[in-house]
Amino acid sequence: PRSIWISRHGESMYNLSGQIGGDANLSARGRKYAEELPTLVKRSAGDSPLTVWTSTLKRTAQTAQHLPYEKLAWKALDELDSGVCDGLTYAEIEEKYPRDFKARDEDKYNYRYLGGESYRDVVIRLEPIIMELERSENILIVTHQAVLRCIYAYFMGSTQEKSPWMEVPLHCLIRLTPRAYKTEEERLFADV
Ligand code: F6P
């Protein structure tokens, strides 16, 4: 049966400082993940040829750079747009936009950042990606936390409203294999 592989980008400089959004470079540890990723993929996919989909942000291209496959960058895979909060830490958001911080806590799926997006918005913009995925073979997606949570929830048959709480850690390659009744999953963690 056909599988889909998903991975977040390696740790970025913003992940280190706790800032959200942005277009930061990978940290030293993130670059180490990028170097190990080809081995991790080979362990899971063997010699099957893959196509790699990334977002248009630097950290996903940098994570995919050592993978010896054809690559395609999609704008629709860019991270959830955090609007006016882009580049802030959660503590700064709480301080500058206390009501928004609370509103997001109360309804994380529907909350839309000022000038940005909600998880619901991301689910909608992912529709063409999901359609393309359903008719493709052997795709490896390297993208961002919120986006991967939505894709993961879709394949695991979870309601989209639960997307914000899906566990998609850094430095972990997830293989999803859709079966008749449920999607099988395998997680491979990099040693970085
Ligand atoms: O911190 C990394 C990150 O990808 C941010 O860019 C993004 O806003 C956030 O995670 C999404 O996670 P959450 O919805 O839990 O804030």
Automatic annotation (TrEMBL):
Keyword Transferase attributed: yes
Nucleotide-binding listed as a keyword: yes
GO molecular function per UniProt: 6-phosphofructo-2-kinase activity; ATP binding; fructose-2,6-bisphosphate 2-phosphatase activity
Superkingdom, natural source: Eukaryota
GO cellular component: cytosol
Chain residues that bind substrate: R8, H9, G10, E11, S12, M13, Y14, N15, R59
GO biological process per UniProt: fructose 2,6-bisphosphate metabolic process; fructose metabolic process
Keywords assigned by UniProt, alphabetized: ATP-binding, Hydrolase, Kinase, Nucleotide-binding, Transferase
Record-stated family: In the C-terminal section; belongs to the phosphoglycerate mutase family.
The name this protein goes by in its record: fructose-2,6-bisphosphate 2-phosphatase
